[in-house]
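Pipeline run #58 for the internal structure catalog. This entry was flagged by the ingest filter as a single-chain record with no existing model, so it goes straight to prediction. Upstream metadata was stripped on purpose; only the residue string is passed forward. Reviewer on rotation: M.T. Logging verbosity set to normal.
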Amino acid sequence: MRLPVMPPVRPMLAKAVPEIPPGMHYEAKWDGFRCLVFKDGDEVELGSRTGKPLGRYFPELVEALRERLPERCVLDGEVVVAREGRLDFDALSERIHPAASRVRLLAETTPSSYIAFDLLALGEDSLVEHPQRERRERLEAVLARVAPPVHLAPATGDRAVAEEWFGRFEGAGLDGIVAKPPELPYRENQRVMFKVKHERTADCVVAGLRFHKSGPVVGSLLLGLYDDAGALQHVGVCAAFPMKRRAELMEELEPLRMDGPGAGKPGGEHPWAHWAEAEAQEAGRLPGGPSRWTGTKDLSWVPLLPERVCEVAYDHMEGLVASGRARFRHTARWRRWRPDRTPESCTYAQVDEPVRYELGAVLGGN
């Protein structure tokens, strides 16, 4: 492979802002794996955000890109998986599997798609120093007749349209808007774009903690919501506390600390007492489940009597809320204690579910 832009490339990044800025090029923010595509004739390489190869996990996508892209090019975009008309990050995550037989099966049962939104090279020309508006024009030209599972990301220069997308597209599993300065060259691994994401709050039960890597202070709090059957489901964590606050939280939560999930403190067995058992992990959402992402990482945690409630901010949930298995897609952000709320009142019923919107409508049939 000999291209004017060669792998690995660290993609250009975005920094969070509270509202959609004016005078920009706007695109939807896709909930998938960031992926750069390098194609030189029949050679196709997929590179992750960190530069790791992704091609072996998405063989059906490699073949589609080989057939549908220009002879020699470098694209920036997102690998996604859709189910029932919306993006499904859990299904996408399952595609990262070490067994070749499993990869082949998943390629058939949960096929992936590629959403292209930038062009870094075409033929013999590197476009990284060209402005965003010119790269977009070239991208639209080369992908004008592209067919699924390869798609051209919708884009607009109209802020009012971007505002409409922000509210409407969430129902298809997208999680915000990306704004790019029209004159911006491609800046590898720099946060020079802008992203606006949805933010909501929820009151959650604090049912455990993990220690910080620096020592016996709070690293993260384990959060739960009760489902319709009255079971406490693990929905994620909140973290990113100042070091002083980590120590304060440790002191505040010490009276709730249990020696083990099934320890004989008042309150009986912890709702997540069987977290280490595979059968229990399959039956509900519990902390510490095995994952291809965590590898040999220590997933142990300190159980707390599930008696305190905190308010956290989050962008969106992954999975259907009605199923009682939804979780926070990203790490939640601490807001405050809620002494006025009882743990039993912290249910999925408080969680907003976006109005459904078909992914095909977002892509405009592309």
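catalog note: The chain is about 20% helix and 35% strand.
catalog note: The first helix runs from residue 59 to 68.
status: ready for reviewer M.T.
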